[in-house]
Amino acid sequence: MSATTKTKQVIAPKVALAVTTALASVALAGCTTSAAPRAETSFDKAQTALAQGKVDKAVMHAEAAVLADPRNAGYRAMLGAAYLESGRFNSAATSFDDALALGDSDPRTVLSFALAKIALGDNAAAIEKLDLWQNDIDPADLGLAFALAGDADRGVHVIGNALRAGQNNAKVRQNLAYTYALQGNWRGARVMAAEDVPANELDARISDWAHMAKPEDYQRRVAGLLQVDPVYDAGQPVHLALNNFPSQDMMVAEAAAQMPVAEPVESVELAVAQPVEVAPVVATPVAVASPAPTAAPVSRPQRRYVANAVVQSLPVNYSVATKAPVSRPAAAPVSRPASRVAANSSQRRMASTSDRANDSHLVQLGSFQSKDSAERAWSIYMKRYPQLGKQNRVITQAQVGGKTYYRVAASGFGSNSAQAMCSTVKASGNGCIAYAKSSPLPGAVGGRVRVASR
């Protein structure tokens, strides 16, 4: 950006991120899709309206584009930009978050989301997202965003390092000056601002920053940075909510996760119960004195079948049954195997439904454009969801739409516990997909990239 630009750029009249209104008029060059013409037409109209400053029309057309193609990340990002430009911070934050959830990897979208969250007073959410993407964001923008989110010391550190590393330009210097101001270092702010601001304008610049320096002025600072007027915002229209439009992958994964796992065990148990009930019949041939040729053939298949079905417990009981006196048709032995089979059956059902023993399912928590970001994300998820403390981290590589992503998942779940975990994650406003280990999500390549236990 040029140091002489007068509106919505780095030094005039408020220091701006690289995304300031480039943020509102995001070109999103990478968002070409094969969407239906109506969605593309609405998207083009939204871009045009935004460039012309007609924010109401931009919102209208962007909403139409999203409604026509609700899982298009570029359309969601454009909608967020339109909301942001109209001062609707709540709706903007939701739309940018949706775009990121759909795979948008543009750092401008991350910064836009962070600014919207800061304007809502949710510094924690802003910093969390900035942490995940810090390696992908211009240090001048990242540092100022941290400062706006209440961590001015970190902002000074990030931008100061960039300046010392050779990024000595007007944008870096003025963002550092504003970050000094947010830190309360007014001398440093004046000295740094004087590098690019004419002497006759310097006092006005410092005065503007001072008027918005109170902690409670967070919304005014973001609005001033973007040069927008905040308005009351009830949030993104409900009919545009991303969770109203599940992807095919999600539906397939959820369907797979809902498949019952107990039925095969039930059928085995039925097979086990039948031979136990006919155990008295096995004892009867022993009571017959005549060497009938049919006695041995009847008992041997029975022995093999029962022993294979119950594995370890029934062979012992079977030997007791064969030693029973002829006058007693093995009433007691029959009760023993029956009670043991009942106990085994109960344990097997619990094993199949208590859910963790099979380690059959995973829960995907997020998708990122680098392994480092995915690994950092896992640490954040662990803090946010203590339930993950007993699970294993799984990072898998995926190719989606020609781009490489790294998916973060937790393993060690069964069907029921995976669904329960996802319900918890979704209740906190984040995305989650539960899926069977035997049915990996589409796009997965090469297997596990990195797995770390707990």
Can you put this structure into words, describing what you see?
The structure is a single chain. This protein has 454 residues and is α+β, with helices and mostly antiparallel strands. 58% of the residues lie in helices and 9% in strands. It has a five-stranded antiparallel beta sheet with strand order 4-1-3-2-5. Strand 2 (392-400) and strand 3 (403-413) form a beta hairpin. Helix 4 crosses helix 6. The longest helix is centred in the last third of the chain and has 24 residues, at 331-354. The protein is globular, with a radius of gyration of 33 Å.
Concise description?
58% of the residues lie in helices and 9% in strands. It is an alpha+beta fold and 454 residues long.
Descriptive key words:
454 residues, alpha+beta, 5-stranded antiparallel sheet, 21 helices, globular, disordered N terminus
Distance between the termini: 45 Å
Query: Structural class, from secondary structure content?
Result: alpha+beta
- From the spread of the alpha carbons, the general shape counts as globular
How big a fraction of the residues is strand?
A: 5-15%
Q: Helical content, roughly?
A: 55-70%
Average predicted confidence as pLDDT: 73
> What's the β-strand tally?
5
Tell me the major beta sheet: 5 strands, antiparallel
Counting DSSP H or I runs of 4 or more residues, the number of helices is 21
Q: List low-pLDDT spans.
A: 1-37, 256-357
Strand order of the largest sheet: 4-1-3-2-5
What's the SSE pattern? HHHHHHHHHHHHHHHHHHHEHEEHEE
Q: Over all CA atoms, what is the radius of gyration?
A: 33 Å
